[in-house]
């Protein structure tokens, strides 16, 4: 879906923006320390929060910014808002409304009504217009009972509701929103979603920071991914969401085993040499998008002659619980005879429609047919892979489900 106005000058233009903070390495906390060492210089180190970030946001575009904690998202928003000075160039077009820090601009000793008026005036409304909108703002925030209560007595959820309500009532052309909506309850979040839809339909420009990849896909025309202050990717929200999940789950994978016995149990008549995941084209993957076909492969080296070995794979989640198991048993009765020194690759292919977003580790079990299945090798290497998806429903697996809504006593029906 294209933004409301994809032509004309951009609403936001960012070129080569960088932000460096100077952090003291040693600090003097007491007056005594300052008196004893009055001339001691404080050593400083530089921390680069943003490095050469460049992008533009079109007028009427809902633009998302994703990234892990510490990636520079909020710093970038503060630079665009003018809260921080930064290197490079930042251009903004139109009246701007910001919702970056919880409660910023509120006088905690004043009631909500007075704060709404003061913030409306600071955001460019006339005093008459600000007073006229007070009841509308308070009603949207659901704080009618507390409008005369001092803000310092509000909970964090009440403050964010008030702040968001003020921000969307000033008819701004450009809105900067940091991810603080998670503080609100479910009913207020739905109000926010409705407001976002309305503003997007009205052609407002919104710059939105979020960890919720479902929201990015639901609302954003485009999105950007930051990591350690640098822009990794900019483009379709679904692509950004997949890459974000890959990085977020991606604590550095443990190097694959070198074949030492700590990764193997069993008789040792054969050894699983390596395990990997690949796509339909045969390219190896570390991240597998949900809904696409994947193939798990295990390369086996035989040390003695073995007839019809059986292989099974257990896919474990991060809690080391098997979420699915696949086996040659019952599928291929005769797998062949392999001499000492030969190799074979066992393949397990399936449509990845079930594995929920997260990190998984496969365990391969190689068995010898005979009186039962004798274990030749059970191999659990350090190899892991990530399943990515725009959002997670929260279960161990995501089952494909057909949904419908029916009104009792009527032919009304909605299905998907």
Verbal overview:
The protein has 416 residues and is an alpha+beta fold. The chain folds into 2 domains: 237 residues, P-loop containing nucleotide triphosphate hydrolases (Rossmann fold), CATH 3.40.50.300; 125 residues, abc- transporter (atp binding component) like domain (Coagulation Factor XIII, Chain A, domain 1), CATH 2.70.50. It is built from 9 helices and 24 strands. Strands 10, 13, 16, 17, 20, 21 and 22 form a 7-stranded mixed beta sheet that branches. Strand 16 and strand 17 form a beta hairpin.
List the helices and strands and how they pair.
Elements: E1 12-24, H1 31-36, E2 44-57, E3 62-67, H2 73-81, E4 87-92, E5 96-99, H3 112-122, H4 127-132, H5 134-141, H6 156-168, E6 174-177, H7 186-201, E7 205-209, H8 213-219, E8 222-227, E9 230-235, H9 237-248, E10 264-265, E11 270-278, E12 284-285, E13 287-289, E14 293-302, E15 306-307, E16 310-316, E17 322-327, E18 337-338, E19 343-351, E20 358-370, E21 372-379, E22 385-388, E23 404-406, E24 413-415
Parallel strand pairs: 3-7, 3-8, 5-6, 6-7, 13-22
Antiparallel strand pairs: 1-2, 1-4, 8-9, 10-21, 11-12, 11-14, 14-19, 15-18, 16-17, 16-20, 20-21, 20-22, 23-24
Helix pairs in contact: 3-5, 5-6, 8-9
Instruction: Report the biggest beta sheet as strand number plus sense, adding barrel if it closes.
Output: 7 strands, mixed
Number of domains: 2
Q: CATH homologous superfamily of the largest domain?
A: P-loop containing nucleotide triphosphate hydrolases
- What's the total helix number? 9
- CATH topology (level 3) name of the largest domain: Rossmann fold
């Amino acid at each position: 879906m294209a933004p409301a106005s994809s032509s004309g000058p951009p609403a936001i233009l960012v070129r080569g923006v960088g932000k460096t903070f100077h952090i003291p390495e040693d600090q003097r906390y007491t007056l005594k320390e300052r008196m004893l060492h009055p001339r001691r210089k404080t050593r400083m180190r530089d921390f680069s929060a943003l490095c050469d970030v460049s992008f533009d946001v079109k007028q009427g575009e809902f633009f998302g910014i994703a990234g892990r904690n510490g990636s520079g998202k909020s710093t970038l928003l503060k630079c665009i808002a003018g809260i921080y000075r930064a290197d490079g160039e930042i251009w903004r077009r139109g009246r701007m409304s910001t919702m970056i820090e919880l409660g910023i601009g509120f006088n905690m000793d004043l009631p909500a009504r007075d704060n709404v008026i003061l913030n409306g005036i600071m955001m460019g409304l006339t005093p008459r217009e600000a007073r006229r909108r007070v009841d509308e703002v308070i009603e949207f925030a659901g704080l009618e009972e507390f409008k005369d209560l001092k803000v310092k007595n509000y909970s964090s959820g009440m403050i964010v509701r008030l702040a968001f309500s003020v921000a969307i009532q000033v008819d701004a052309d450009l809105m900067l929103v940091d991810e603080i909506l998670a503080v609100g309850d479910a009913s207020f979040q739905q109000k926010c979603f409705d407001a976002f839809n309305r503003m997007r339909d009205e052609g407002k420009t919104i710059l939105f920071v979020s960890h919720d990849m479902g929201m990015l896909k639901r609302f954003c025309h485009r999105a950007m991914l930051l990591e350690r202050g640098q822009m990794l990717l900019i483009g379709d929200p679904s692509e950004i969401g997949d890459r974000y999940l890959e990085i977020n789950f991606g604590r550095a994978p443990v190097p694959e085993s070198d074949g030492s016995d700590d990764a193997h149990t069993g008789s040792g008549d054969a050894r699983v040499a390596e395990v990997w995941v690949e796509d339909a084209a045969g390219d190896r993957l570390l991240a597998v998008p949900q809904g696409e076909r994947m193939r798990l492969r295990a390369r086996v080296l035989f040390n003695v002659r073995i007839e019809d070995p059986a292989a099974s794979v257990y896919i474990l989640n991060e809690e080391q619980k098997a979420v699915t198991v696949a086996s040659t048993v019952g599928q291929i009765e005769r797998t062949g005879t392999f001499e000492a020194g030969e190799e074979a690759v066992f393949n397990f292919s399936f449509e990845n429609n079930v594995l929920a977003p997260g990190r998984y580790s496969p365990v391969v079990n190689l068995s010898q047919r005979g009186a039962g299945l004798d274990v030749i090798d059970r191999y659990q290497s350090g190899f892991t892979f990530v399943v990515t998806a725009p959002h997670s429903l929260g279960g161990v697996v995501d089952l494909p489900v057909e949904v419908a809504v029916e009104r009792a006593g009527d032919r009304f029906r909605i299905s998907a």
